[in-house]
Amino acid sequence: MELRDWKKLLTPWRAAGPYGYVADPDELIGGNRVRLLHDGKEAFPEMLSEIAKAKESVNLETYTLRDDRTGRLFADALIERARAGVPVRLIFDAVGSYQLSGRFIQRLRNSGVQLLEYHPVAPWRPRWAWGRRDHRKILVVDGKVGFTGGLNIADEYASLDGGGGGWRDMHVRLEGPAAHEFERLFRSVWFKKTGRWFPADGSRAAKAGDSLVHVAANQEFLRRRFIRKAFLHAIEHARRRISIAVAYFIPDRTIRRALYDAVKRDVKVDILVPEMADIPAVSYASQFLYERHLAQGIRLFAWSGPTLHAKAIAVDRIWASIGSYNITHRSLMHNLEVNLHILDRRFAGELDDSIRGDALRSREVRLDEWILRPPLEKLRDRFFWLLRYWF
Predict the structure, then answer these.
(1) Is the domain of 234 the same as that of 157?
(2) Deepest of 105, 271, 278, 322, by most Cβ within 10 A of its Cβ?
């Protein structure tokens, strides 16, 4: 019997168990250990520690890199490894890191750190792609340990105790074979933009745990909808609870319908959104649909603490996703994004508890109060909703 025939026989069994939450179980990679990290307070020390231990390679890809205390901590760590003879590569987005000083960049380059500025702001160049941004957050060390989530390298994400902004966000640390997939994504962007290739280290990563994961990326044009497809599949197969924490929530009609249908199946749908996002226009566009969401039975919770920047979802405490992907048109069609989809009851349960805990500390948006807002606020929200494809 051929391999594809075995897959057909296994499909009904998979759909009946936890594999039913996964659009394509064959994409899952086993043998990984994953750990949820809250905010820069937990994530940054772990990331810096792994960089300091690097022996073979450090590959860091980020949307925002700033010349501030946090940025300089990471720069110092990268420079130290580069001077020790470890290959160190850094990709940063030109728009997301527009405030980065030339002095900061030159210091990295002079110390041996290899740099790639993704899509520089250069309107005089043909096809300079203003709208195509690298919104990913990836760190891979020695091809064996990887990090991803919503955290950029900037003081906003550092702890309040450490003088940062204390933004609420989530990251995940992964150790095991799937780290190779993070490195593969990094290598693909690096080669496409520089023409320079480098060998992979992740293929040698040993089994480190029992978590099944899928590193999902909307890389090429034909793969723009991969992350959305996984979200949609998990939502459609939810049986009890969907918990979402997202900075920018402007779902398209298909995602909205899937969430509404889930409520009709008696699935509890809780969505944590910021009271006001770091980009207010996105919050206004998002608020245009609040009345519709609430009328359909979705519960909305507005986080009023330091800026909520997370992009996370947990379904039935079995399937989870954390990454850079916002539920917006820009994330779907224009940005390079990456999410780690995780099939692990322990991790998904911990993520669900975290989102629900934040929801309890937030203001619940209630339909009877929301519909009484002033007409000018409703008109403002409608205006920005009409501009939603830019967000």
Answers:
(1) no
(2) 322
